[in-house]
Amino acid sequence: MAGAVAIRGGGETRSFLAVDEPALGSVDATATRLLGSFDPFLQAKDRAMLVPGAVQARELWPVLGRPGAVLAGGGLVDTWRPPKSGRTLKVVVDPWQKLPATTRNEIVEQAERLAAYRAGSLAGVEFTTRGLVMQP
What is this structure's pTM? Predict the structure, then answer.
């Protein structure tokens, strides 16, 4: 493909446009973000490259009731749901791994921004242990 740059990841080779290379290099890959359930990033065809395993894939892309995803450190680390009651928002996070305190604090900051965007207040952020996958 003319004007394309090949990259290798997850055992596969993919391409992107060479004109997009400067923009991709300037992205802050360490940022923590709450991605909505239908965020374009989560709609990628190569889902196996986005999540670490089949258990996480089933949790992130169920048949009904999709959660959002937490992007941190350049990868997806957990799912989240935004149960809302009136003008208050509570964010429930299901981590797939133990999260460092800094990442947890960044998730809380993102939840505060989301509540403000929705013209409400944040009732809290709950970190569950339901999604944790123990590493050997």
Answer: 0.74
**In this structure, are residues 66 and 37 in contact, taking their beta carbons and an 8 Å threshold?**
yes
Residue 135 has pLDDT above 50, yes or no: no
CA distance 28 to 24: 9
At residue 13, the 3 state secondary structure works out as strand
Helix (H) or strand (E) holding 9: strand 4-9
Residue boundaries of the structural domains of the chain: 29-127
Average pLDDT of 113-136? 77
pLDDT for the residue numbered 84: 65
DSSP type of residue 16: E
CB 41 within 8 A of CB 76: no
Rounded to the nearest integer, the mean pLDDT of the chain is: 83
- CA 110/CA 70 separation, integer angstroms: 10
pLDDT at residue number 16: 79
Q: Dig out the tokens for 111 from the structure.
A: 């939840």
Residues 6+ apart with CB under 8 A from 14: 6, 7, 8, 46
